Each structure stands twice: as C-alpha cells, then as structure tokens.
C-alpha cells in the first residue's frame, strides 16, 4: 500500500508539472491571465464533482465548521495564487526552472512545517540529513537556472 501511495504522489507531481505547461499555454493562447485562471478553477471544480460519487460529498455540521483553524480556510486562496504564478511565470522561466523553484520552496517550507509541527503536521525534526537534502534542492535549482 505504501508503494501505491508513493506512485500516486509521483503521478500528482507529474500532473503538476504538465499542468504548468498546459496552463501557461492556455494563458498565451487567450492573452487573458484571469480568464485562464478562471477556466483552470472551473475545470478543477469539474474534477472534484466527478470524484464526489467515489469520495463522498456532504456538508459538515456547525460544530465541525467552527473547529476549522482560521488558516485552513486560506488553502484555496493559496492554490489560486499558485495558479496565477504558474500562468504568469512558467513560460518565462521554463518548466524546469519554474518547477524547480516551486518544488524547492515547498521542500524548504515543508522542513519548517515538519520540524515545528505547524499547521497540524506531525513533528519530524530537521536533522542534518534533512537539512542537507533541502540544501541540495537549492543547489539543484541554482544549476537549473544557470545552465
């Protein structure tokens, strides 16, 4: 089961990178970044609705809604900001550099989130090997950017 989960995560990473090119191409063809982002949001919603019969869709009670941390409501806005950045920057930077920068920023951020247990993550200390991994990511992006 762990291998299957890792393969699904790898597929999500592949889709994330391919999505970057698709969204940048959509923006280039339309010449309207906000329209492109709205189309991306609409197709996202369509995927969610298609998945609903398999994953379930319901409205939680008031107590559950009240228990949601304030920052958890901002995930969609963060996703929207990411899509806009993708639409506006990916073509200029190229797929490798854009993805490298965003993944490296995500790795460094995840090291902090894990180390301190922020945003509900289980604490995983940022030991020397994890820090070295983050530094290697930064070095890799530098190489991608230079060559």
Automatic annotation (TrEMBL):
It comes from the Bacteria. InterPro entries: YdcZ. GO terms for cellular component: plasma membrane. Pfam families: DMT_YdcZ. Keywords: Membrane, Transmembrane, Transmembrane helix. It comes from Methylobacterium phyllostachyos. This is Transporter family-2 protein. The chain crosses the membrane at residues 34-58, 70-90, 96-117, 129-146.
């Amino acid at each position: 089961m762990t291998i299957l989960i890792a393969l699904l995560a790898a597929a999500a990473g592949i889709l994330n990178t391919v999505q970057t090119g698709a969204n940048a191409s959509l923006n280039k063809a339309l010449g309207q970044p906000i329209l492109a982002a709205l189309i991306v949001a609409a197709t996202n919603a369509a995927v969610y609705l298609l998945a609903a019969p398999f994953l379930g869709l319901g409205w939680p009670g008031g107590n559950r809604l009240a228990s949601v941390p304030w920052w958890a409501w901002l995930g969609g806005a963060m996703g929207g900001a990411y899509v806009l950045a993708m639409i506006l920057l990916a073509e200029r930077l190229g797929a490798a550099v854009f993805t490298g920068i965003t993944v490296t920023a995500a790795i460094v951020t995840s090291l902090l989130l894990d180390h301190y247990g922020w945003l509900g993550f289980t604490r995983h200390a940022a030991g020397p090997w994890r820090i070295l991994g983050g530094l290697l990511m930064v070095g890799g992006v530098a190489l991608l950017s230079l060559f």
